[in-house]
Design brief:
The chain has four helices and five strands, in the order E-E-E-H-H-H-E-E-H. 24% of the residues are buried. By secondary structure, it is α+β, with helices and mostly antiparallel strands. The chain has one domain. It is globular and about 45 Å long. It has helices at 46-52, 58-73, 86-93, 114-125; strands at 5-14, 24-32, 37-42, 101-103, 107-111. A hairpin with a 4-residue loop joins strand 2 and strand 3 (37-42). Strands 1, 2, 3, 4 and 5 form a five-stranded antiparallel sheet that branches.
Length: 135
């Protein structure tokens, strides 16, 4: 079993109208320096976003998130920021922003497998809860 190592993470939020302060979590970023891991998962619930903000340009949100994913992945199509180290990319991606897509505050934890933790955080913070089955 691998040793538990520290990681930092932030939820990614869509804030359609910044002045209202309402948001929906749409993704998670996770960085583990000891594991040399930087990952991002997104689960955009178009229905929830349309209910919150019918006037929201979902294509623009998707394009913004795709750009963030390219930066996270170190994809050359992500521009000069994508060429930075994983730590620098993480810190750039979680910097406070006034755009429609915003990071939450950064939180820390310990895990054995960062990719599995990223999936668990996506399930906990972004995906709708599984329906309860009555017995």
């Amino acid at each position: 079993m691998p040793a538990r190592t520290p990681f930092d993470y932030a939820a990614l939020r869509v804030v359609p109208h910044v002045e209202r302060g309402e948001f929906i979590n749409v993704g998670v970023l996770l960085f583990s320096r000891p594991r040399r891991f930087l990952g991002m998962r997104v689960a955009l619930d178009r229905g929830r976003l349309e209910a919150l903000a019918p006037d929201l340009d979902l294509a623009a949100v998707e394009a913004h998130l795709a750009g963030m994913q390219r930066i996270c992945d170190g994809d050359p199509a992500g521009g000069p920021i994508a060429r930075l180290s994983p730590a620098e990319r993480f810190h750039w991606l979680v910097s406070p922003s006034s755009t429609i897509v915003q990071p939450s505050p950064v939180h820390s934890g310990l895990c054995e497998r960062p990719a599995e933790m990223l999936d668990a955080l996506l399930a906990e913070l972004v995906l709708p809860p599984a329906p309860q089955v009555e017995t």
